[in-house]
Amino acid sequence: MPLNILIVGASVAGPTAAMLLQGSDPSHNIIVVERHPHFRAAGQQVDLRTKVSMFCGRWVSSTLSSRTETGLEVLDAGPPRPTSTTEDESMRGDVVKVLYETSLKQDAILRRDAGKGEGGLTYEFGKTVTKLTQNDNDENNKNSIDVTFSDGRKKRHDLVIAADGQGSRTRRLAFGQETSDAAFKSLGVHATYYSIPRAEGEGEMARAYSAPESRMVITRTSGRPVTQVLLFTMKDTVEKLLAKSHKQPIKKQKEAFSEAFKDVGWQTDRVLAGMQTCDDFMRRRWRRLG
To answer: ∠ at Cα 14 (155, 180), nearest 5°?
Structure first.
């Protein structure tokens, strides 16, 4: 039976779920909404291990750019220590872009084969969900969900999938703040990911600087004209500062990370200056499920 399906989030999970559901029944009417104006390409790399590569290889593996990273050099108080990085690792932006574009290609093919039949896949950016109401007591529409969107529009769906990450707003709307918070336990790690201009002669070796007081700075180019920066900290003295900034405007979040990393040394001046002007800033609080 064809369903009206809403998927919230257009990163890795959203387009993947859309392709699987549409492939199982092309008559499903699937809408993917994303609160950002475009799909988000920032974030930590994605490891496509053997079983995952076999599962999604027909969509992803043949299309992703070749990874040119030659290894990882660990820097601390001692001499540099070169190590290897996994060959199954892909840039998150590449994976998201391929999944998004491939889902649209699959939709075009299925629509063409189906003629003017029902079903299809649609993406709507710059929009999110503000209210969910399940119709348990409506005998004619039992188990359907009335959804209110940020633009004021309302629509009824048979299935709503929360693919909007650890901090899922959809999960909070469906189960409440207390239940949502109880599902994840903080690991005390704050992280941010963004891109800065690549330095001359930077090469293809990723570098991880282990700084004092449980802080780490990672740079990696992966064959790109920009350098990806990853900042991680478990520093107790900045926990409250970073936690407070989590729901503040991006400018305030950048200021908080700059304060937390201002004295770590190495390439701090470069990576923090680049953070102020980057347009792909993403931050996360690491949490454990359960």
So the answer is: 75
